[in-house]
Amino acid sequence: MSRLLLLILAPLLISAAKPKLVPDVSQRRIDIIYSFTGAELLLFGAILYPGGRVPDAHADIAVVLKGPAEPVVVREKAKVAGIWMNVRSARFRSVPSFYALAASRPIERLVDRRTAAIYELGIDNIQLSPASGAPPEEQRRFEAGLVDLKRRSGLYSESATGVEITDDVLYRARISIPARVPTGRYTAETFLIQDGRVLAGATREIEIDKSGFERFVAVAAERWSLTYGLVAVAISLLLGWIAGIAFRRLK
């Protein structure tokens, strides 16, 4: 009797099972050295469907790479009595230091605005966590300014056709890492989307850190700030003195 029940319920259990993502990245760690000019990160993986059967309806993939969150203060300048001054400011508690989205199709064609906001799919849907208590209109202006600054510095990017899917099973995406990328622990989130719903998600972590002499300088500046400052001043004075001697000899 139990065996017959299992045979009857097996198709229902298979249909109720959800697909899974098996993601990976080309580099789990990116080292920043003196000659670092940027990098290209490859995010790839496979979609595992229940029973190994690929459905007739095609699914889409969206990949989001986020840098560590940080508090940010945005200041607005205005001309006062002929002098440019900071007249207003807005604070944000938790701003991704880096954000890159790659998708197989434009996000607005994959999910509705509510779903995009829940999963932070798209630059316009990043939760910036404002903390200044400014009026809504002013807050939106500061948010737009912050996003624009991040875009222009290459730290925020979005590609509507950045994911390539092969045979509805394998996928890959390439994300450019700029030379001035912040260091820290990054998360690469992959979402499987079908019929406007997120069916599965998976996360991989990536470490971006300074290496070699750059790491030594960064650690020295953080741990021995006073000594670091004195050494920097001494080196500047020494270089100025050497340059002065060289200039006098040339004359």
Automatic annotation (TrEMBL):
> What are the protein's UniProt keywords?
Membrane, Transmembrane, Transmembrane helix
Superkingdom as given in the UniProt entry:
Bacteria
Annotated transmembrane regions: 226-247
State the InterPro entries in the record: CHP02186-rel_TM (IPR019088)
Protein's recorded name? TIGR02186 family protein
Species of provenance: Sphingomonas oleivorans
